[in-house]
């Protein structure tokens, strides 16, 4: 079965996470993604181990798990962009591509003759996506930056972490590279939108993606609240600004999440806790009153929740229809029956005979589902194949390019 994007060819000059995450989405849906990397070292994240991907004999390879998380279903080609011959090869590939994506520093692509204006002269229909920290224009445009910086600058860390007045209070970054991941997701949407427009207009276009823009955008309701009333949102740790109780509680052997979304659920929760006094207390009877009186209510709930184990609470709360859940580590995640049923973990065979685990795509199209055709490629694994089949280079020409250090 062909993928939804099997008619699309993507030339991928992106590294680290945001760009590769975007192109992995496209590759999962069938696009032919050619990943262009530096000879000898490749994508920076290849060396971000341990852990390392294993070969068929169980030995560590040169590729990290970090790299493998964002580069399946792609073909790897090594090209020296600093050389005129390398630039010419990339232009030839771009002339045959639908999408060009890069995340180089501002001005690098123009210096190489690989900027949008140069590429569209040879391929007017190209959808060209640039990913940078701050965008192509503005006072910060030339600054470098990584995910952590944008979580701080874009407001996410001001909302993440325990309240300042409580033990352990203070800003925290999210445990994954959220700014990178969300920029990759937004870039996927932008590219698909541009391709859809091209299908009716015949016109390609330029896409300017910035980590800062995407980080501010995912502020969502919290950012909107500030724009509406001018009040700076506060950190609530594992609690919720507008719903109580809606947080994690310590039990006798761990923690359980309880999310009471309405007054009916609140009454059932009180029944399960054996605390009719809380249900009958006028200070806690409604959603609004529980918010106003959270400082009196939460300690009472917390005291009661410590009296039973996680398993006991989860069983009784689920039976009563009170939304709840555990806080799983990743061992528990991949042992969870729903996660196993949804097959959120797959194994893909490498060209050396070994296998590598991959996280399954959550995109579940019934007619054209994602497929895991290729393991994350080793550096330059497909250089000869791509130069031969895509550009018609002979074996002797390819060997000459390799001898000159172009590939």
From TrEMBL:
Keywords, comma-separated and alphabetical: Transferase
Pfam families: CoA_transf_3
GO MF annotation list: CoA-transferase activity
InterPro entries in the record: CoA-transferase_III_domain, CoA-Trfase_fam_III, CoA-Trfase_III_dom3_sf, CoA-Trfase_III_dom_1_sf
Keyword Protease attributed: no
UniProt KW GTP-binding keyword: no
TM spans (from-to): none
Protein name: Crotonobetainyl-CoA:carnitine CoA-transferase CaiB-like acyl-CoA transferase
Organism classification: Bacteria, Pseudomonadati, Pseudomonadota, Betaproteobacteria, Burkholderiales
């Amino acid at each position: 079965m062909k993928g939804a994007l099997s008619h699309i060819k993507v030339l991928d000059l992106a590294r680290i996470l945001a760009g590769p995450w975007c192109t992995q989405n496209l590759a999962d849906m069938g696009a032919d993604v050619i990943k262009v990397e530096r000879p000898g070292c490749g994508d920076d994240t290849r060396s971000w181990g341990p852990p390392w991907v294993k070969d068929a004999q169980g030995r560590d390879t040169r590729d990290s798990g970090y790299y493998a998380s964002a580069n399946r279903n792609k073909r790897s080609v090594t090209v020296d962009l600093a050389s005129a011959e390398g630039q010419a090869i990339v232009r030839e590939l771009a002339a045959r591509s639908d999408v060009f994506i890069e995340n180089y520093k501002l001005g690098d692509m123009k210096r190489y003759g690989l900027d949008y204006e140069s590429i569209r002269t040879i391929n007017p229909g190209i959808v060209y996506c640039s990913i940078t920290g701050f965008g192509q224009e503005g006072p910060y445009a030339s600054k470098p930056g990584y995910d952590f910086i944008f979580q701080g600058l874009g407001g996410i860390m001001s909302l993440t972490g325990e309240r300042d007045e409580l033990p352990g209070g203070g800003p925290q970054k999210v445990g994954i590279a959220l700014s990178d991941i969300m920029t990759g997701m937004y870039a996927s949407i932008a590219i698909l939108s541009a391709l859809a427009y091209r299908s009716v207009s015949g016109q390609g276009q330029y896409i300017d993606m910035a980590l800062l823009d995407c980080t501010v955008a995912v502020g969502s309701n919290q950012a909107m609240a500030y724009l509406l009333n001018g009040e700076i949102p506060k950190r609530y740790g594992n609690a919720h600004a507008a719903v109580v109780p809606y947080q994690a509680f310590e039990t006798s052997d761990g923690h359980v999440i309880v999310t009471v979304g309405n007054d009916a659920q609140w009454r059932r929760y009180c029944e399960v806790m054996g605390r009719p006094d809380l249900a009958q207390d006028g200070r806690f009877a409604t959603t609004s009153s529980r918010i106003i009186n959270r400082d009196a209510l939460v300690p009472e709930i917390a005291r009661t929740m410590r009296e039973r184990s996680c398993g006991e609470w989860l069983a009784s709360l689920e039976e009563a229809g009170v939304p709840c859940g555990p806080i799983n580590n990743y061992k528990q995640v991949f042992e969870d029956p729903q996660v196993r049923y949804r097959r959120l973990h797959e194994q893909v065979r490498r060209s050396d005979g070994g296998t590598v685990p991959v996280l399954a795509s959550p995109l579940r199209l019934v007619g054209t589902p994602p497929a895991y055709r290729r393991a994350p490629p080793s550096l330059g694994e497909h250089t000869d194949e791509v130069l031969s089949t895509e550009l018609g280079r002979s074996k002797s020409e390819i060997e000459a390019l390799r001898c000159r250090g172009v590939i």
